[in-house]
């Protein structure tokens, strides 16, 4: 757990340092902590608790999203490889061609054209590098809708290199009384195979109610649920011998600061 806590604190420290030097580069930012308590996970232990730090920001050259998960296992791992906890994170910068060139690239439903990248890292030492084109879409009713396309490369001689991934990311807000209900999330669709790494689809939406706004408080505080559907999880083909098709649900508490 020491490595996990260190990763979480390092991410926060880097952000604070970066913000102090940002000046006019930084246009907006949002930080949050999420607590999840879920059941019915596959491959990993069936019961899990996760604490997630998230950062999102807009810059005069693009945007940035990053998160670090620290997960505690409460059930037996089906792969019998669990030591009780783990961590995982992603850093995802995107360069906006519209902002960089000072040109309005919007046409039809497209708001902007970007170059998207992601660096994935975890406790197992695996490192994944993703790069590809992206567009921001203007879809009525949505707070935002991104469509990112990546070419995936894995560090070292690991299965899962040289495959393509499509990742939409979205948020939709519904007014509820004097507060609101937010439906947001992402989908990672690895569309082809590489050796023993199987194409897979990871669908991860959240539904959450802003309790703080409903009670008349300041900062956002959400309560809700997260659904985690993952076919052929980790690129492992589902079978009768080893089930990897996941349909997990977690209770969610999320505080913004």
Detailed description of the structure:
The chain is mainly beta and 257 residues long. It has a single domain, classed as Nucleoside-specific channel-forming protein, Tsx-like (Outer membrane phospholipase (ompla), Chain C, Beta Barrel), CATH 2.40.230.20. It is 12% helix and 57% strand. It has a twelve-stranded antiparallel β-barrel. The longest helix has 21 residues, at 2-22. The chain starts with a helix and ends with a strand.
- Beta-strand percentage? over 45%
Instruction: Report how far apart the termini are.
Output: 24 Å
Count of beta strands? 12
Total helical segments: 3
- Helix/strand structural class: mainly beta
Helical proportion?
A: 10-25%
What's the CATH class label?
A: Mainly Beta
Tally of discrete structural domains = 1
User: What's the gyration radius in Å?
Assistant: 19 Å
Strand adjacency order, main sheet: 1-2-3-4-5-6-7-8-9-10-11-12
The gross shape turns out to be: globular
CATH architecture: Beta Barrel
| CATH T-level fold name | Outer membrane phospholipase (ompla), Chain C
Largest pleated sheet = 12 strands, antiparallel, barrel
Topology:
Blueprint: H1 2-22, E1 26-39, E2 48-59, E3 62-73, E4 85-96, H2 97-101, E5 110-122, E6 127-137, E7 142-154, E8 163-176, E9 179-190, E10 200-210, H3 211-215, E11 221-231, E12 246-256
Give the gist of this structure.
The chain has 257 residues and is mainly β.
Key features of this structure:
Outer membrane phospholipase (ompla), Chain C; mainly beta
């Amino acid at each position: 757990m020491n490595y996990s806590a260190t990763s979480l604190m390092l991410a926060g420290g880097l952000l604070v340092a970066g913000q102090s030097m940002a000046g006019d580069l930084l246009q907006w930012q949002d930080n949050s902590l999420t607590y999840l308590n879920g059941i019915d996970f596959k491959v990993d232990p069936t019961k899990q608790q996760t604490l997630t730090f998230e950062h999102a920001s807009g810059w005069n050259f693009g945007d940035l999203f990053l998160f670090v998960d620290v997960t505690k296992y409460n059930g037996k791992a089906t792969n019998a490889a669990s030591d009780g906890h783990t961590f995982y994170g992603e850093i995802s910068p995107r360069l906006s061609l519209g902002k960089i060139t000072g040109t309005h690239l919007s046409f039809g439903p497209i708001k902007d054209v970007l170059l998207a990248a992601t660096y994935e890292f975890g406790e197992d030492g695996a490192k994944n590098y993703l790069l590809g084109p992206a567009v921001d879409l203007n879809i009525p009713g949505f707070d935002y809708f991104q469509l990112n396309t990546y070419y995936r490369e894995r560090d070292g001689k690991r299965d899962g290199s040289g495959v393509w991934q499509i990742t939409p990311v979205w948020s939709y807000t519904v007014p509820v009384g004097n507060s609101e209900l937010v439906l947001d999330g992402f989908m990672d669709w690895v569309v082809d195979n590489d050796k023993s790494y199987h194409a897979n689809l990871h669908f991860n939406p959240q539904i959450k109610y802003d309790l703080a706004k409903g009670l008349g408080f300041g900062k956002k505080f959400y309560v809700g649920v997260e659904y985690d559907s993952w076919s052929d999880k980790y690129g492992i083909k589902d079978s009768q011998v080893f089930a990897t098709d996941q349909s997990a649900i977690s209770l969610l508490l999320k505080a913004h600061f």
